[in-house]
Write a structure and sequence with these properties.
292 residues; globular; 8 helices; three-stranded antiparallel β-sheet; single chain
């Protein structure tokens, strides 16, 4: 039992998990899912009002705004329904794909922080102008941004019944707009619409949405690769020259180089692009590096 829940630190590579719990690799997506499950448990223990007061983003006035709620509202559940479970599932499904094939754990974490900050800022702004009684809570809004980002990244992928992803996205946006209009939730309507455009700009800075060149990309953003620094010429010291030989190449450096090649292939073509032999080789390299 102790071995089953042993924490194993993740590697330094962007597409490896943060750590392992048994055989489960805990990625950024899984951390958000775990936090959402904790939010549901808090709802059961504290009740809806307790969660609403402690974690949800509400602002009777700006002076009473609790700053930590700007980033805790995705995990606040003042009520519970099957749609909350579906939101967690869809976040895991689509978020895992974005994290694994595009961003890696660190950049995906920063993307989620940026998305959450944008939505919080818009809610506070429009709430102060239109209706300070709004409530921003639950993973639903953030999950919708992640799902629509996935659709915009791969609009031609097929869903069930051969429905293209872009059409599924249009349906999702339409449902959200009808819901906000029907309930006269003007603050949430503006947060959703404006948040889509602002977060598309944010995603572009992370190197996503490259099929939309009309979305500006600021040079040097988090999605831009950093230019390599020019190598400085080393001054040759006078004295005897040491002849290098094959003994300088270590097994560790060869392992790291091979692992980089396999991880680059996963990043470019997806995990399914590896052959069974390459997958076995990658597992052996990881295990060898963990043993030091």
């Amino acid at each position: 039992m102790r071995e089953r829940f042993r924490l194993t630190p993740g590697g330094r590579y962007p597409h490896e998990p943060w750590f392992h719990i048994g055989s489960l690799g805990v990625t950024t997506t899984w951390l958000v899912v775990f936090a959402s499950i904790v939010g549901l448990i808090l709802f059961a223990v504290m009740g809806g009002q307790g969660v609403l007061a402690g974690l949800a983003l509400i602002q009777p006035n700006l002076a009473e705004l609790k700053l930590w709620t700007l980033f805790t509202w995705p995990f606040a559940y003042p009520q519970f329904s099957i749609f909350d479970v579906l939101a967690i599932f869809f976040f895991w499904y689509f978020g895992s794909d974005l994290e694994r094939n595009e961003l890696g754990k660190v950049r995906f974490a920063w993307l989620l922080v940026a998305f959450t900050g944008v939505l919080s800022f818009l809610a506070v702004l429009f709430g102060a102008v239109l209706d300070p009684t709004y409530v921003l809570a639950g993973l639903g809004m953030l999950e919708m941004m992640v799902v629509l980002l996935w659709i915009a990244q791969w609009p031609d992928r097929m869903f069930m019944f051969n429905i293209p992803a872009w059409l599924f996205g249009v349906i999702l946006v339409g449902i959200q707009l009808i819901q906000y209009l029907g309930y006269r939730s003007w603050v949430m309507l503006l947060v959703f619409v404006v948040g889509l455009f602002v977060n598309a700009f944010v995603a572009r800075q992370f190197g996503l949405l490259d099929r939309f060149p009309w979305i500006p990309q600021v040079a040097g953003g988090p999605g831009q690769p950093k230019p390599a620094k020019p190598a400085k010429a080393k001054k040759r010291k006078s004295g005897p020259t040491v002849v290098t030989g094959p003994w300088e190449s270590s097994t560790v450096s060869k392992d790291d180089q091979r692992m980089d090649e396999l991880l680059d292939k996963i990043h470019a073509e997806g995990a399914d692009s590896l052959t069974s032999k390459e997958k076995k080789e990658l597992m052996q390299l990881r295990e060898r590096r963990r043993r030091g």
